[in-house]
């Protein structure tokens, strides 16, 4: 960290960003564990609500709180036995694999 090699490699210097990457990757790991479970109706995904205009972003985010809620609500309402499992879901409902 002292040499800033991580920054030169394109990684963030933010502990917050690193923690979000870890939590998002953990969703995929948990889904892998549930994939061998007899209960097939368990879906674990990570969702990114976007850069939302809130106190946390000092009101710099371009999305309204209602717009930021779209992807989390989408995840909460996925149908039973959905094929969308272990994904990273962006604010616009684009899916990414981990």
Helix/strand order:
HHEHEE
- Order of the strands making up the biggest sheet: 1-2-3
Biggest beta sheet attributes: 3 strands, mixed
> What is the β-strand count?
3
Judged by helices, strands and strand pairing, the structural class is mainly alpha
The appropriate CATH architecture is: 3-Layer(aba) Sandwich
Protein name: Carbonyl reductase [NADPH] 1
InterPro entries: NAD(P)-bd_dom_sf, SDR_fam
GO molecular function: carbonyl reductase (NADPH) activity
Family: Belongs to the short-chain dehydrogenases/reductases (SDR) family.
Task: Report a brief summary of the structure.
This protein has 98 residues and is mainly alpha-helical. It contains three helices and three strands.
What does this structure look like?
The protein is mainly α. It has a single domain, classed as Rossmann fold (3-Layer(aba) Sandwich). The chain contains 3 helices and 3 strands, in the order ααβαββ. Strands 1-2-3 form a 3-stranded mixed sheet. A hairpin with a 5-residue loop joins strand 2 and strand 3. Belongs to the short-chain dehydrogenases/reductases (SDR) family.
